[in-house]
Amino acid sequence: MTSDNLILSFDTSAEYCAAALLSGGRVIASQAKQMHKSHAESLGPLVIELLSLVGKSIDDVTHIGVGIGPGNFTGIRISVSFARGLSLALGCPAIGINSFEASYFGQTAPATVLVPATQGQIYLQGFPGENPPRMCNLAYAEAMGVRLLWRSEAKELVENIAHLTTLRREEQFSPPAPLYIKAVDAAPPRDTAPIIFG
Fold it and tell me: What pTM, to 2 d.p., does this model score?
């Protein structure tokens, strides 16, 4: 990527809304706001706020990096949908980056990245290598005898997503999609479908 590219990254996979702008290989603005809900209402204004801080508009964005989880199902869907919509509107690529990669960014020694899950479980993935992410409990991870890294804090995570976006070749990637490691906690409705009279 050239130095005049403007990379916008954002992530809402946990109890925060975070965004960053990167240009010329350095982060020029970033912000993370803690929140339990209202990610959908907060993400767009946060992006506009960051762009205004550096005198840019949304039309200046050349690449989008988005956190794809794992994490909160609804939060991930919000970010991914926003990224795909912006990508189409701006005619620029959107690239999905998972929390494991973003948390390991800048490391060189082998480590396993942990991401909190629900019901006392965690998601983990080992680096470097091609180890697929999986779900287990913390005791199992600690018994592995490897260096453990917890998911980065929101501001660092979203900045790392921006850096990783600059390293990707967009033609090698499909549009971003949520990273699901376990089945979605949703059940089909129990009520029978209504009869539609034509």
Answer: 0.89
Amino acid at 134: R
Mind listing the pLDDT tens digit for each residue in 128-186?
Answer: 988 899 999 999 999 999 999 999 999 999 999 999 999 986 656 678 999 988 754 54
CATH topology of domain 6-100+153-172: Nucleotidyltransferase; domain 5 (3.30.420)
Which two structure tokens, joined as six digits, stand for 45? 């204004």
**Contacts of residue 97, Cβ cutoff 8 Å, sequence gap at least 6:** 9, 65, 66, 67, 68, 160, 161, 164, 165
Name the residue among 12, 51, 9, 61 with its Cα closest to residue 33.
12
Q: What share of the chain is helix, strand, coil (3-state, %, to 5)?
A: 35, 25, 40
Quote the percentage of the chain above a pLDDT of 90.
80
Burial track 99-120 (b if 16+ CB lie within 10 A, e otherwise): bbbbbbbeeeeebbbbbebeee
The answer to whether residues 73 and 37 touch, using CB atoms and an 8 Å cutoff, is no
